[in-house]
Design goal:
Keywords: DNA-binding, Transcription, Transcription regulation. InterPro entries: HTH_HxlR, WH-like_DNA-bd_sf, WH_DNA-bd_sf. Pfam families: HxlR. This is Helix-turn-helix domain-containing protein. The chain has one domain: Winged helix-like DNA-binding domain superfamily/Winged helix DNA-binding domain (Arc Repressor Mutant, subunit A), CATH 1.10.10.10. The longest helix has 14 residues. Strand 2 and strand 3 form a beta hairpin. By secondary structure, it is an alpha+beta fold. It has a three-stranded antiparallel sheet with strand order 1-3-2. The chain is built from six helices and three strands; from the N terminus they run αβααββααα.
């Protein structure tokens, strides 16, 4: 059995929309990170992605599947179970995402300063 996803794996004071490098839609990068250590069920993904609605999560998963980054496997049985997993193509994004995250962390103060300066101009 897999270890459950940490409900606090994404820092709420570290909004993903601050990073200027985005992978897919607002949630795609976070979904990919949730699938990094193996397949997950829809309900498992909702734990760390508290701010996402079921409709938006479904749409993001479908887009990731359409783009070949995520696979969807339905397990038959009396209680049908569906799992999502990274494909080899999706897994190949983990390295570039780690690089982008490291860059954003290194330049976090500059990014915040730029956002605050821009907000002061409006």
């Amino acid at each position: 059995m897999r270890e459950p996803l940490d409900p606090d794996m994404f820092d709420p004071v570290c909004p993903s929309d601050l990073a200027p490098i985005r992978f897919g839609d607002k949630w795609s990068g976070l979904i990919i990170r949730c699938l990094e250590h193996g397949p997950r069920r829809f309900s498992e993904l909702r734990v760390p992605l508290r701010g996402i609605s079921a409709k938006v999560l479904t749409g993001s998963l479908r887009t990731l599947e359409r783009d070949g980054l995520v696979s969807r496997t339905a397990h038959p049985g009396p209680l049908q179970r569906v799992e999502y997993a990274l494909t080899p193509l999706g897994r190949s994004l983990l390295g570039p995402m780690a690089t982008a995250c490291a860059w954003a962390e290194e330049h976090w103060d500059e990014l915040l300063d730029a956002r605050e300066a821009a907000a002061g101009l409006t």
